[in-house]
């Protein structure tokens, strides 16, 4: 979708990350909006995403970058003031990290979100605000859902997928912190009239994803296989997920904004749905056949907070925004592989700091990774 308006002043918290940088790129190349990226660049390799954005011809006079942290309420308030559109992707994203350090997880995910909401409330502009939540707010769901679904995707149907009416059951510090933020964002629409949208997302995958063992598992499996590294499978490998291509998520962002008269104040489950389900072991088989590589893997104990089966029912958003996923899992695997092969140098172990003077930056606070 091409939504061009010279009056769109867009702020992206977490704009240097996988989702944020892809969204910033889309906005710069498909709209006339001014784009403000706010990020603490704490995730490894995301500085490459900032350089990628800066090199765009459209970035001149339209891209602004702030190195800041959502826990800094003063910096957040300053960034929010001119924005009439906000996308909140900044987060501590790993369940494992939340278990090791629950306080920091809460301060970033819950406290940081409250800082953004309060800045939006007190700023007086009532900006459109889209927040990316997670399917982890539903907890384990039902252990009776058979993980045997993993071995026959044709059996995955609408009856196996999760709707927004599924009871919330926060599990793990990460689930609690994101769930808290999720509910705050939703309630600020009801209590204060801010047009907020919550996306409870399943697995997102695609180019520019620096996937790790803890987060971004599809990309992590692909990179590990291509690099000859051993993949750790936590559990029996039969866990089922639905995968949504980043390109389709960007279309969902556009659709949510374009249909904001209907989407404002709503919560949506967003994912690839029954047609894009895959298990961990199935993904390894797909990688081996599609990329002609041999993947090495080992089994390790299941991790707390992992769901055995999760399949998104996105029917509500499809009806409200006339949106459906278009890219399948196999195409997404090829997309990630092709991007990796064209950007292999970004994965070298030696990393260099951001050079000074290369970006229009308000250096609020730099947070070491």
Task: Characterise this structure.
The chain is of the alpha/beta class and 369 residues long. It has a single domain (9-348, 357-363), classed as NAD(P)-binding Rossmann-like Domain (Rossmann fold). 38% of the residues lie in helices and 18% in strands. It contains twelve helices and 14 strands. The chain has helices spanning 18-30, 46-54, 73-80, 95-100, 102-123, 172-192, 217-227, 246-258, 260-263, 280-291, 315-321, 329-342, and strands at residues 9-13, 34-39, 63-67, 85-88, 128-134, 196-201, 203-205, 230-234, 240-245, 266-270, 277-279, 296-300, 309-310, 361-363. Strands 10-6-5-4-1-2-3-14 form an eight-stranded parallel β-sheet, with helices on both faces. Strands 7, 9, 11 and 13 form a four-stranded mixed β-sheet that branches. Strands 8-12 form a two-stranded parallel ribbon. Helix 1 packs parallel to helix 2 and helix 7 packs across helix 12 (329-342). It is globular. It starts with 8 loop residues before the first strand and ends in a 6-residue tail after the last strand.
What's the CATH topology name? Rossmann fold
Number of strands: 14
Low-confidence runs = 143-151, 355-369
How many structural domains? 1
Average pLDDT score: 89
Gyration radius, rounded: 20 Å
CATH class category label: Alpha Beta
Q: Report the CATH architecture.
A: 3-Layer(aba) Sandwich
The backbone outline, from C-alpha atoms, is: globular
Major β-sheet profile: 8 strands, parallel
Strand content: 15-25%
Number of helices: 12
Distance between the termini: 35 Å
- What is the topology, as strand order, of the major beta sheet? 10-6-5-4-1-2-3-14
Provide the succession of SSEs. Answer: EHEHEHEHHEHEEHEEHHEEHEEHHE
């Amino acid at each position: 979708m091409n939504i061009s308006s010279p009056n769109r002043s867009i702020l992206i918290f977490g704009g240097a990350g996988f989702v944020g940088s892809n969204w910033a790129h889309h906005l710069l190349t498909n709209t006339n909006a001014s784009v403000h990226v706010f990020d603490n660049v704490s995730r490894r390799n995301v500085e490459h995403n900032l350089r990628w954005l800066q090199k765009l011809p459209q970035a001149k006079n339209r891209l602004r970058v702030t190195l800041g942290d959502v826990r800094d309420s003063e910096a957040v308030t300053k960034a929010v003031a001119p924005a009439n559109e906000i996308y909140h992707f900044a987060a501590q994203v790993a369940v494992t990290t939340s278990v090791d350090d629950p306080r920091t997880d809460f301060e970033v995910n819950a406290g940081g979100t409250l800082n953004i909401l309060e800045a939006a409330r007190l700023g007086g502009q009532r900006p459109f605000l889209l927040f990316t939540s997670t399917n982890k707010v539903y907890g384990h769901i039902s252990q009776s859902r058979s993980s045997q679904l993993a071995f026959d995707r044709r059996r995955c149907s609408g009856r196996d997928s999760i709707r927004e009416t599924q009871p919330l059951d926060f599990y793990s510090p990460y689930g609690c912190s994101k769930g808290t933020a999720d509910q705050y964002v939703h309630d600020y629409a009801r209590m204060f009239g801010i047009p907020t949208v919550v996306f409870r997302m399943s697995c997102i995958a695609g180019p520019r994803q620096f996937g790790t063992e803890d987060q971004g598992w599809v990309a992590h499996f692909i990179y590990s296989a291509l690099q000859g590294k051993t993949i750790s499978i936590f559990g029996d490998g039969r866990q089922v997920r639905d995968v949504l291509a980043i390109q389709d998520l960007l279309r969902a962002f556009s659709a949510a904004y374009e249909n904001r008269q209907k989407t404002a104040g709503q919560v949506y489950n967003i994912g690839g749905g029954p047609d894009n389900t895959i298990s961990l072991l199935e993904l390894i088989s797909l990688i081996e056949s599609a990329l002609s590589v041999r993947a090495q893997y080992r089994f390790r104990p299941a991790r707390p907070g992992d769901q055995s089966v999760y399949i998104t029912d996105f029917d509500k958003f499809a009806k409200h925004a006339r949106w459906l996923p278009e890219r399948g899992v196999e195409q997404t695997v090829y997309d990630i592989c092709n991007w990796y092969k064209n950007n292999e140098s970004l994965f070298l172990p030696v990393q260099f700091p951001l050079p000074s003077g290369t970006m229009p930056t308000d250096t609020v606070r730099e947070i070491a990774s």
